[in-house]
Design brief:
The structure is a homodimer.
Chain A lengths: L4 H37 L4 H15 L2 E9 L5 E7 L7 E7 L3 H9 L3 E3 L10 H7 L6 E8 L2 E11 L7 H44 L7 H13 L6 H13 L9 H4 L7 H7 L2 H9 L9 H5 L21 H16 L10 H11 L6 H12 L4
Antiparallel strand pairs in A: 1-2, 1-6, 2-3, 4-5, 5-6
């Protein structure tokens, strides 16, 4: 029977067919990897990349759960973001010592691990399972590395349908980990650049104020108050970003006001007050030619307008004043009242709140005052 | 013979074998696509992404040449970067009207094209071939699109070994174009953020100066001069970046100096001069707490040191003064001499150059003065 050509051929055909199915499956998984790579790289938001990485690990590996553990700056701890796949929606945060568990070993050694019997592996750290209420049956754990720097490890836990992870899974998972590393690194670089922008602008704005020794920290506080109030006004993320930028830069026009006027301890003369009133317009001019700051010009220019039209520089009325400027106006006034001025000492928080209430609907947008009060009463201001 | 089971089986086996080879090849090309995607996304430098995109198109499509055409802001023109694959190293830049050629059609319609006989396609724009000295035999042209916005088109030209492009090539090329789009968009976002940082810092620095009406534009010029001189000092790209940041921020400490002192048209009293001499240290303090600016603190703090130790604030000597500070010192002095001051009119370029030469080796690092002179004589300053 062994020499019957028909049988021999049938066997070869079966083998070929089996191999074809395997390779076809590989094509499918590689196509999925390519789509997941695109999804990972389509954002520069670090948190979003982390979330997508965990989802991708779970999906590509057909695992019950995926997790991403990132090394802290000192390389002593792993920050654990674990998503329990279909078994649970929530991402729970855990911190792990670098010398504990399989994840710690992979992060320290930079070598991938495929573990189908964790209970037999002395490196396995069962406490994690206990802590998050999960039973690890098997797992893949690979380093997430960019340019020889280990950022952390990526894990796929419990292959579905009671199966085990094979070498092919591991090789595919290593490719995914490379894409995760790149996406994480790009997001980090972007956020560092953004931070540098905000911190530099804030420092310069602070320095501008410090010519008036009474107003140190004003920029920082107005930014904080504006963002706290905005929480209760359901602004979109993009609007929050613009509000933050406009708050940081709202008083930079003061650079054009004479030291003597800024620091004057006695009431201002009319011509000096005219000078002060120029600062929103001057601020708008300073940033006017910067393409990326076009959208925040109204926030800087109109933060001294009144809802009843009696503010400056243009006497805009009601909705004619951009929302961002209306928010800064309230935050700015609250800070001005509660800090020392050249001409008087700081007044109490309660006085400031009652001034805001008094001005609600005339000087200020009542909705913004309401939002500010909510933030105030919840302790955010 | 048609009914002989052995023959039938042999045929099926051949078909299976052929199909297996095809699918195996697909696995190889998908793996290559995944690697190329990683390479594309491993940089946030827009120019580098463009270069890598062209290389990836050529390699993945086994084409003689690849090219990337990007739409300008108004959507009227395509900027053409063509790489002639193995046939030529150089990337030549061409500008094309949006209503011309196959690339223009693809950019306007957002549909991919596979053209195996361009001479028969009325959209084909033969002049490009003539202009770049290339004969297009066949081509693939696909839109490069991110979130419904068309950034441009990606082309693969002349399949190698006299072959034609098939449907499978097209489908793979569309995947590559998606990855190119994502990488280009990330690089754009990063560079816009970087630009925003530089422009805002420059504007604020300018505003700080403008309190002294005689010094408008000083920051901008010192930055330009520093970078021009640095070209002749073979600084690394990272050092150039730090030099640019330090130049932009070198005088921000002046924010702490009284208007009266800054603008004084008569010689300064000793105590006023002491005040002026504080600005490098105050500048360093203003940026001192910003993590991303740590490396430029020495450039800001020591730009008034002399190579012979007679400068301020610390009297550092020679190589003890960081190179970036030594460069800014020369650029700063040149600009101070050639512009109006509160106490005198601007002096001539020639006077400034002779002052630099006079101070070479005592006030200034002679190598920096030499570099500055080279930049000056080549018209860059």
């Amino acid at each position: 029977m062994g020499k019957d050509p028909y049988f021999r051929s049938e066997t070869r055909e079966n083998l070929l067919f089996k191999r074809l199915k395997e390779v076809e499956e590989k094509v499918e998984r590689l196509s999925l990897l390519s789509r997941l790579g695109q999804i990972l790289n389509s954002t520069l938001d670090h948190q979003e990349v982390r979330k997508r990485a965990i989802e991708a690990a779970t999906q590509l590996m057909r695992a019950e759960a995926g997790s991403l553990l990132l090394l802290d700056e000192k390389g002593k701890h792993l920050f654990f973001e674990v998503a329990l796949g279909e078994k649970g929606e929530s991402i729970r945060k855990v911190i792990l010592d670098i010398d504990k568990g399989i994840a710690g070993w992979v992060a320290q050694n930079g070598e991938p691990l495929r573990v189908n019997h964790p209970e037999k592996d002395p490196r396995f750290f069962k406490e994690i399972d206990d802590r998050i209420g999960f039973k690890t049956r098997n797992l893949l754990c690979v380093p997430v590395r960019v340019k020889d720097r280990i950022l952390g490890v990526l894990e796929a836990i419990n292959k579905k349908d009671e199966k085990e992870f094979n070498e092919e899974d591991l090789s595919l998972f290593l490719s995914l980990a490379n894409q995760v590393a790149i996406a994480l690194d790009n997001a980090r670089l972007y956020q560092e650049m953004e931070e540098m922008f905000f911190q530099t602008a804030e420092s310069l704005a602070d320095a501008i104020e410090k010519r008036d020794p009474y107003t140190g920290g004003h920029t920082r506080r107005v930014t904080q108050y504006s963002l706290a109030a905005a929480k209760y006004l359901s602004l979109r993320p993009e609007e929050l970003r613009l509000l933050k930028m406009a708050s940081v830069l709202h008083d930079i026009g003061k650079i054009g006001i004479d030291d003597q006027v800024l620091r004057k301890p006695t009431p201002l003369e009319p011509h000096e007050f005219d000078l002060i009133r120029k600062h929103p317009k001057m601020g708008a001019e300073i940033i006017g030619h910067i393409k990326q700051l076009k959208e925040i010009i109204p926030g800087v220019k109109y933060h001294h307008e009144y809802i009843n039209g009696k503010g400056y520089p243009e006497g805009l009325i009601g909705e004619g004043i951009p929302m961002i400027a209306r928010i800064i106006a309230v935050a700015d006034t609250y800070d001005a009242i509660t800090t020392d001025r050249p001409y008087r000492k700081a007044l109490s928080k309660e006085t400031a709140i009652s001034e805001l209430k008094k001005g609600s609907g005339t000087q200020f947008d009542w909705r913004v005052v309401e939002a500010f009060l909510q933030a105030f009463h919840s302790g955010e201001i």
